[in-house]
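Hi R.,

Here's the chain you asked about this morning:
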Amino acid sequence: MVTTRSASRAAATPPPPPPSSAAAALQTSTSTPTPNLWAHAPSRLTLLWFAVSLPAVIWDCGYVLLRPWTMEGGHLHWPLYTPYKLYGEIDHIYGWKAFNAHNGFTSAQGLLNVVETAMSLYYLWVYFRGGKVVAGRASRVLSGRPAAVAVLTAFSAAVMTLSKTVLYWLQEYFSGYDNVGHNSLPDLILLWIIPNGLWLIFPTYLIYVMGGEIIEGLTTASTGATIKSE
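And the predicted structure, written out as tokens:
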């Protein structure tokens, strides 16, 4: 009877969910299989976004936090920050109007950009430092605790970026488009909506993808399956 009850309990226990594709690839590349190893391998789109966005944000932080030296007439304006002369005319939050009015929003969001950039750079450092080349995969695979820390960091940075960008748009709406309402519709679309819209689309993508990985890891852990950390 004892044997029968034990067998029934074992049969009633639901099997753990299958490992992610990155984890499966990592398992097959090692001589000792590790069941349910949670791992992370960013998509090419994710890496491309970081490659494009990080230099742009660092450039933007420099302009914002070094004003007025980086503005027109300042000794740091030419040649690195000359495009901001036009952008300051498109969006007055970046121009002399906001600066002379001591509007603190520009510098506040610039300081948050520094934090977000540091988090994104940390994610890339952890990934490229600890990621392993796996046969059959185009990108490296990061596993164990480093993978969890990296994904959580990038996810948090993406949430910060999206929230700040939404706030950026909302403050224009609730101020009656005080800083961008003077533009023609074509200029507004080409020089403000499209560039700033990218910081809505791609952080949302990162939140969706990396949030899904975090949920996958928590689901795996909740089944009682072994999760190996490095």
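Confidence is low (pLDDT under 50) at residues 1-13, 27-35, 226-230.

Let me know if you need anything else.
M.
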